[in-house]
Amino acid sequence: MQAALAASDLTRFAFPDQDFLNAYFGGAWQPLPYTYNATKGMYAAHRPPCDGLVFELAAVRNLHFTMAKPWDLRHPCHKGFERLNQLWHAAYAEPRTLGRTLLQAHLAEQRARRAAEAGNRQPVT
Questions:
Q1: Is 108:86 a contact under the CB 8 Å cutoff?
Q2: Which residue of 106, 109, 117, 124 sits 20 to 30 Å from the alpha carbon of 46, by its own alpha carbon?
Q3: Closest Cα partner for 37 from 17, 59, 16, 15?
Q4: Are 63 and 84 in contact (CB under 8 A)?
Q5: pTM: predicted TM-score of the whole model, two decimal places
């Protein structure tokens, strides 16, 4: 791998680390489910109410903080990601509180999902 890296023109890659790994391993890898590389963009696009895949925070094992980082408090792109940023801050400030914060977020998701489902129900005639 080091020889291939040394022989590569990394300037052709937009994201050199990930793009090199993709090129080096070619089709010899399997993508992980979103729960192991969940992103803020997925959260924005797939939380209730939505059709198809629903972002379930309780299922997430690794959250990739793309875009605005939670520690950059002045970044203008935090709107809508308060719950995710709260998780990061809980883990950073006191890791023991993360479980409670995750439970609160999960319960809030369940309430939002039930509310969305109730709003989509058609009266039975």
A1: no
A2: 124
A3: 59
A4: yes
A5: 0.61
